[in-house]
Every structure is written in C-alpha cells, then in structure tokens.
Design goal:
The structure is a single chain. This protein has 313 residues and is of the alpha/beta class. It has one domain: Alpha-Beta Barrel (TIM Barrel). 45% of the residues lie in helices and 14% in strands. The chain is built from 12 helices and 8 strands. Strands 1-8-7-6-5-4-3-2 form an 8-stranded parallel beta sheet. Strand 2, helix 3 and strand 3 form a beta-alpha-beta unit. Helix 11 packs across helix 12. The radius of gyration is 19 Å and the shape is globular. Bound molecules: 3-hydroxy-3-methylglutaryl-coenzyme A (HMG) and magnesium ion (MG). 3-hydroxy-3-methylglutaryl-coenzyme A binds next to helix 4, helix 5 and strand 5.
Length: 313
Amino acid sequence: MIPSHVTLVDVGPRDGLQNEAQPVAAAHKIELVHRLQAAGCREIEVTSFVSPKWVPQMADNTQVMAGIHREAGVRYSVLTPNMKGLEAALLTQPHEVVVFGAATEAFSRRNINCSVEESIERFAPVVAAAHAAGVKVRGAVSCALGCPYQGAVSADEVERVVVLLKQIGVDHCGVADTIGTGTPRAAQAALARALKHFPVEEVSGHFHDTYGQALSNILACLELGIATFDSSIAGLGGCPYAKGATGNVATEDVVFMLHGMGIDTGLDLDRLVDAGAWISGVLGRAPVSRVSRALLAKRGAAATAAANAAANA
Ligand code: HMG
Ligand code: MG
C-alpha cells in the first residue's frame, strides 16, 4: 500500500514566507524558487494573489511570478481566494491555482472574511474560470485537524467542505492541519474522508509541525496510499490568521524520512539543505529543520577536521 514515489509540493515561498514580519525582497523569493528547482522540486507554491492589506508580504506576487526562470517539468502554483486574485494570477501563467476553504466557520471568517458557504460561492467562478484557462485547481481545507478558534474539529466537518469543493469542480483536495495539533489516527480519519470523494492521486496532506506531529502524520497517510504532501523548505512558515502556528513540516525532514524508507522523491537532499540554509540566512536565523541542522553540523565538523588536517600536514 505504501507508495514507492512521493511528490512533495514545496510551499516555502508562499506558506513559508507569507508570515514573515519583515519584508523579504522579491529577488530573494525568486532565488529561493530557483534553488528549489535546482534541488529537484517539481511542484512549487510560489505566492498568493490575496489582498495586500491582509498579507503585505505577498504583495509582490506578479513581480515574483514574472522573475522566475521556468524550468520544463516544474509546475508553479499560486493561491487565489476570489475572482480578483484569479484574474491577476492568470496573467502570470501558473500551472495550478489554489482556493482555500476551512472546515470551521470561525477560521473561514478570520482567514478570508466570509462564511464557509460564502467562500464556496466565491470559489465556484474561480474554479470555472481557471478551468476555462486550462489551469488545474486545488482546493485546500484548512483546520481539518483542529482550529485555533473553535478547538476540536470532526471528520464530518472536514467531509462537509470536501464535498462542497468537489461539487464546484476542484481537481485536487488538500487536507490541512493549520495549527499542527493533529495526530496520526486523526490525520488518517480526515484524509480518508477526502479519499471518499477524490482519487488517491488527487488527495494531499499539508501538515504544520507546531506540535512535532507532522512526520508521524505523513507516515500515517502513506499507509492510506497517499503520495502527495506539502512541505516547506527549512520548515519556514505559518499562517498570519493562526497565531503561534509554526511552519509546515520541513522538506529536508520529509525527504530524509522517505529516502530512509526507500521511497523516491526525485529530490537532492544536499541541495535542499543548501537552499534551506541560504533562505534561513537571508531571514537571519538557523533552519528549523532538524535534518538540516544535523547535516550542517556534520558538514561543519568535516570542514573543521579537514582544516586541522591541512594545518598539521
Ligand atoms: P475582503 O476585505 O472581504 O475583500 O477580503 P473585499 O472583496 O471586500 O475587498 C476589499 C479590498 O481588498 C478591496 O480593495 C479589494 O479590491 C481588495 P479596496 O477597494 O479596499 O482598495 N481585494 C484584493 N486585492 C488583491 N487581491 C485580491 C483581492 N481581493 C480583494 N485577491 C480576501 C477577502 C479573501 C481578499 C482577504 O480576506 C484575504 O486576502 N485573505 C487572505 C488571507 C491569507 O492569505 N491567508 C493565508 C493563506 S491561507 C493559508 O495559509 C492556509 C493554507 O496554508 C492551508 C493551511 O495551512 O490551513 C493554504
Ligand atoms: Mg499552511
């Protein structure tokens, strides 16, 4: 049942950077995308076409999309909460757009300023227009394993939104643990509801690692046959409307686990570590990824040993 190949969608440039308080230069965002694709990433969530008043960090969306040197075989996705966002996004030629709903009313209101039902009404023309332009649509269900405002969330609540997204024609369903409180059985229960309505290749997991559960949740979903997960380089990120929630599971950590299990990702771990260390340096901190820290420490130790050997030669 466990897949032999897993696709990771690196959401670092979008989910990772959207929460940064200090402006990150468009040139750095573009460079991050370039480093990710050089490390083998074939799915990159680049930016979001949301209100700049709500998320100022993503205000340079058009500039970033225009600045990327596109590589054949790499798919670039962006968030589009409404028609205004979609119209601007389509001018930048993404391969995929993401409408993002929530399993709870409270989060929907805080994140996109409308009820769940209203969000679906807004998304319906976005899906239709994206399809008319030949662009795939992913529907995300936030707060599927817990909500910062409501608390516990049931699988029934998740399935309700999964069904609504299916009805308006989204192609892919991403189930998101926005605040990272989900544990493996709960993750399986939520993702299983998505599998009732979407084929396994069109279901993905998006796990923030706030409580350190993300790798376990991914393993639990692999047992369901799910083979697509979002992850964020260096573990960057969070959601501005889920205070205290930390980043997505770090890409480096997921890759280390999957490669250790003999599962192919097409990704080059060393180059991912380089990319994660680089963007973390730009942001003035160390990578959150445990694997990255371990490998950087090992490299540092090896470099010191080599320098000592040269000095003693
Ligand atoms: P609103 O204020 O209700 O929108 O915001 P509105 O239609 O009333 O418009 C108000 C103003 O915003 C107008 O400008 C519009 O033109 C402008 P004004 O006339 O006042 O100058 N506006 C826009 N500008 C640019 N792009 C747009 C756009 N839409 C309206 N697309 C809205 C509604 C959805 C826009 C707002 O709530 C919003 O931008 N929310 C985004 C929140 C966000 O980005 N959250 C983080 C991403 S989701 C996430 O991280 C979760 C995820 O990772 C999965 C998980 O972990 O759960 C995906
Ligand atoms: Mg997220």
